[in-house]
Amino acid sequence: MTLSFDAAPVGTALPATVVELTRADLRAYADASGDTNPIHLDEAVARSVGLPDVIAHGMLTMGLAGQVVADWAGDPGAVVSFATRFTQPVVVPADGTAVVEVGGTVSGADPEARTVAVDLTVTSAGVKVLGRARAVVRLP
User: Fold this and answer.
1) In a domain, 134, yes or no
2) Is residue 37 a part of any domain in this protein?
3) What is the domain range of residue 99?
4) How far apart are CA 26 and CA 93, in angstroms?
5) In a domain, 42, yes or no
6) 13-46 in b/e burial notation, b at 16+ Cβ within 10 A?
């Protein structure tokens, strides 16, 4: 069901969403995207360039956040724009998962265009991994 503009006033919170990523998820994303940079797949390479461990692809992290907005809106085509800055990497351990938490709040509305601005908070291990993450969503 698609969310309506009137049901998303300023201050509306998106449901908090938790996504777990494994090394297998990184391999699947690398295969699908063609981004096989070894910092996402090889612990030794990641550490050799100063990273604490293998890290998730930035676009994967951004895509997870964008999916939360699309799910909230009820229509992926409703997302007019989405921009962010990558502030910290999502470290994915060899054993276990990296937990990415996504939340958001409607921060602005344009009744003429029937769009809302959604400011997102995206963290992993208690650290903000996306900064200035904002989506604009057109709602009926």
Assistant:
1) yes
2) no
3) 5-20+60-138
4) 11
5) no
6) ebeebebebebebbeebbeeeeeeeebbbebeeb
Residues 6+ apart with CB under 8 A from 83: 132, 133, 134
Strands in 79-86's sheet, in edge-to-edge order, are 13-21, 98-110, 115-124, 127-138, 79-86
Q: Output the six-digit token pair for 57.
A: 């692809």
Retrieve residue 106's tokens: 């409607």
CATH number of the domain that residue 120 is part of:
3.10.129.10
Ramachandran angles phi, psi of 53, nearest 5°: -175, -175
Number of domains in the chain: 1
Q: Does residue 34 lie in a domain region?
A: no
Burial per residue of 76-95, b for 16 or more beta-carbon CB atoms within 10 angstroms, e otherwise: eebbeebebeeebbbbbeee
User: Each residue's pLDDT tens digit in the chain (140 positions)?
Assistant: 899 999 999 999 999 999 999 999 999 999 999 999 999 999 999 999 999 999 999 999 999 999 999 999 999 999 999 999 999 999 999 999 999 999 999 999 999 999 999 999 999 999 999 999 999 999 99
Which residues lie across from 101 on neighbouring strands? 18, 123
